[in-house]
């Protein structure tokens, strides 16, 4: 056997093994630190805002899993008299809710009378001027998601109370963490105001 072959089969000295273990450990630590940094940077802008202003806000929409099929729950159209005082006006609104998962669809069917009642009450307090503008429709979509969640038995703080707390000079009260809504989006299929 040659001298070169004998040294190739011989075990590495203990000092080289320790150095190799230290290098591997350092690479693993750096990889974990990189993964942690990526996860921190991947935090959504809404989560950054919540952390900045000191209180949590309920999210209406959250990121969808691109592999999962969306779950839609179309509601029967709503026809309601509006709160206009100068003239009799009414609205016919078709609403489709996008749900977090199919189990929420079963709960929605069970609590449908409460959900429809809450949405009807919400619509009946709107004026045609509020609903004509895009901002009014977007606000209505957020409110419909909240009222549908309330119909499902999820207790939420009123948005008006939150606005009063932030605008007043009184000491802010601590809030419980926001509960995620089971409705990820609200879509209008018809929107007629007469």
What's the layout of helices and strands?
Blueprint: H1 3-9, H2 14-41, H3 45-53, E1 71-74, E2 78-81, E3 90-99, H4 102-110, H5 112-124, H6 128-132, H7 134-151, H8 159-167, E4 183-193
Antiparallel strand pairs: 1-3, 2-3, 3-4
Helix pairs in contact: 5-7
Molecular structure report:
This protein has 194 residues and is α+β, with helices and mostly antiparallel strands. It folds into 2 domains: 11-41; 61-161 and 178-193, 2-Layer Sandwich (Tetrahydropterin Synthase, Chain A), CATH 3.30.479. Strands 1, 2, 3 and 4 form a 4-stranded antiparallel sheet that branches. The relative contact order is 0.16. It starts with a helix and ends with a strand. A hairpin with an 8-residue loop joins strand 2 and strand 3. Helices cover 51% and strands 15% of the residues. It is elongated, with a radius of gyration of 28 Å. Helix 5 runs antiparallel to helix 7. It has helices spanning 3-9, 14-41, 45-53, 102-110, 112-124, 128-132, 134-151, 159-167; strands at residues 71-74, 78-81, 90-99, 183-193.
Please give the alpha-carbon distance between the first and last residues: 100 Å
Level-1 CATH class name of the largest domain = Alpha Beta
CATH superfamily of the largest domain: Band 7 domain
Specify the helix fraction band: 40-55%
Number of strands: 4
Protein name: Flagellar protein FliL
InterPro entries: FliL
Family: Belongs to the FliL family.
Subcellular location: Cell inner membrane; Cell membrane
